[in-house]
UniProtKB/TrEMBL annotation:
It comes from Algoriphagus iocasae. This is Putative membrane protein. InterPro entries: TPM_dom. Gene3D superfamilies: 3.10.310.50. Residues 3-119 form the TPM domain. Coiled coil: none annotated.
Amino acid sequence: MAEKLFSSADKKAIVDAIKSAEVATSGEIQVHIESRCKGDVLDRAVDVFDKLKMYQTKDRNGVLFYLAVEDKKFAILGDAGINKVVPENFWEQIKEQMTIQFKAGKFTEGLIEGIKSAGNQLGAHFPYQGDSDINELPDEISFGS
């Protein structure tokens, strides 16, 4: 179910948004989509964050967008480095923007909007480091059961 929610064009647009957001930053953004989330959505997002080894970025500046589509749950999780510098309630504000899109059935647009907002903050606090900057995490969407 999770993979079927997004067409090939939608998936490409989301990956392109990730790549575009990461051009101006050393930060890393990942999207993980599952059908169901049995427990607390933030607990599950933490599990996925760990499984994807997002804590292994040099500056601890990874951001995970986690969606459980059938349960209509989602979370945004930033690592310690980015959480120290973003404004209070920053992730909640992005979630509110995304929720408006999601409620209108615009999942791709909502994700892209959230990715752009996160990318702007990452770029402001963790600018691209030139030749020394490597893409530490994959840009592709990961899918769970």
